[in-house]
Amino acid sequence: MGYTFHFGDVFAYWPLLLQGSINTLLYSAFGMLAGLAIGILGAVWRNSQYFPLRWIAASYVELVRNTPMLVQLFVFFFALPSVGVRLSSTTAALLALTFNNGAYMTEIVRSGIENVHRSQREAALSLGLTRWHIFRHVVLFQALEKIYPAMIGQFTLLMLSSSLISSIGADDLTAFGSRIQSENFRAFEVYIACGAIYLGLTFLLQYVAMVSARFMFPRRRALAIR
Amino acid sequence: MRDLSVNDLLTLPGAALWTLALSLMAFVGGGLVGGLIALGRTSRAGWLRTVCAAYIQVLQGTPLLIQLFIWYFGLSVAGMNLSPLVAAAIAFTLNSSAFFAEIWRGSIEAIPRPQWEAAASLGLTRLQQINYVIVPQAVRIALAPTVGFMVQIIKNTSLAALIGFIELARQGQIITNVTFAPMPVYMTVGAIYFVICFPLSILSRHLERRFHAGRAAH
Q: Domain B6-217 maps to which CATH number in 1.10.3720.10, 3.40.640.10, 1.10.357.10, 3.40.50.300?
């Protein structure tokens, strides 16, 4: 093929790549935290004694997990304005990421809650804790500890799939990459560089997750990531 | 601009055939490559394991969209013009091969060590051990996650829309562009994906339960 790579033309744009990386991390962090909040609520609803709540949570999970995120993104950004909800591309991207991730987190958190042993709840009840206190202090914390590796895996997938938000004009790393290659016509090098950055971000994420587990879960059971 | 008619929506199932065709390519191609990588990942040769691990890490650690852009926009700059279909087929095949390799590696490693040793003591060669002892047992474990990943593949093919390949998602965009009726169009598009994916999800869950039930009985 005899193609000569010119990565210099790409690194000249390093401030944009840096900005894009930061934005990608911010989008993913928001999607993760908001998704976790929805996931906890969804998991509680999934196990609720009220049928409508169970049904809503279950349909939400199935709906999200069986349709592509790209279509969900299009609904938030292109379709919602036609019913009067006008969102900026950033807002639509954040909502879609949260909406998507929330469903996966619901399933993950649910499996964690179901894996907390019954005797834990019984012990808490016999200590006279209220339902809320049992959930907050006994069940939830142990559940999160158990699902920590799965959560980090989902966070990684979320960060990679956040590249899709560039298609509705949000300013993440992929969007900056596309902009750079339209200026310097070095699509090959630009996208390879972007791929390398994403790879670096996943390593960074896994490292941070490993270190923070040490502080969050002193019992260290969650350190079995990997 | 014109109004959305039923005929517009009726073009969507036809486009969904391309979604299925792309998924099939990714499944078959990714399955073949992924099988080889899974064997390499569990091989006795250290260097081969490292190479396969790096392959999986790179493909799983970068966004599929970027991989697609490299094959489509990147290679055309480098002088190799791939059609959107070919670029998408290559990108999806390689990407799913990495995921299949990981799923199947896990299934192979779930087979207890003594099975290998027993097979070896019967005088089977490495290939025969894999063929007659390991794979038949690993398939049982791998079935549910493999079907589950097929759902992922089908959803992933929607990314081909972003390099202009006309499948379900892209056809939805095209209709939206002429009719300005995004809500009904994207809802229909989503519904078609759901109709394709949901039965597979159910099947995957069913297989998983059956497998676990089988294990509990032992």
A: 1.10.3720.10
pLDDT in tens, B110-157: 999 999 999 999 999 999 999 999 999 999 999 999 999 999 999 999
> What DSSP element (H or E) covers B212?
helix B182-217
Residue A75: its pLDDT value, please?
Answer: 96
Nearest in space to B160 (alpha carbons), one of B103, B62, B93, B77: B93
* ipTM of this complex: 0.90
**CA–CA dist B99, A46 (Å, integer):** 29
CA distance B42 to B106: 9
Q: Residue A191: which of B70, B189, B198 has the nearest Cβ? A: B70
Q: Which chain A residues are Cβ-neighbours of B180 within 8 angstroms?
A: 82
In chain B, % helix, strand, coil (3-state, to 5) comes to: 85, 0, 15
Does residue B107 sit at the A interface (CB-CB below 8 Å)?
no
Tokens 């260290």 belong to residue = A220
Q: Closest partner residue to B77 among A68, A185, A199, by Cβ?
A: A185
What gap in Å lies between CA A77 and CA B169, rounded to an integer? 14
Domain that holds residue A201: 8-224
B151 touches chain A (CB under 8 A): yes
**Does any CB of chain B come closer than 8 Å to the CB of residue A174?**
yes
Check CB contact under 8 Å for B169 and A71: yes
Torsion sign (Cα): B89, B91, B94, B98: negative
Nearest residue to B189 (alpha-carbon basis) of B161, B153, B163: B161
